[in-house]
Give the backbone structure.
Amino acid sequence: MPDCKPCADNGIIVPAMRVVNGVPKCDACFRNEQAPPPTKEQPEMKPKIDWREAQKRRDAGESVADIAESLGCSDVNVYTHTHKAKGGATPRATRTVTRKKEKSVETGKGDLLTSLRAEREELDRVIAFLEKRA
């Protein structure tokens, strides 16, 4: 192959590897003519979120959706970085299950007797029904 024409014009003898539009060129000259490879644009950094301020807004009763929209994040992020407002509803997993019997024991003996009598009457009805079927 012939020598690179642009390099030969500068007094350098380099073997040409390509022929572009009838002009022999080495790889370096060929790459210099090509458009530079696109550079990756750095993603725009989001501003840091002040989670203390978000917590204050949530404590004040502002909805999570409104807080998330104003901060430019998702509802999940607000739930993750903040706690529920004090005095708000208790999540289901932490609720204590109370039954009628437990409540009646706490309120006094009279309520306990009333609930036991009601249960006895209900059991009597169930037994009578089952005896009729048998």
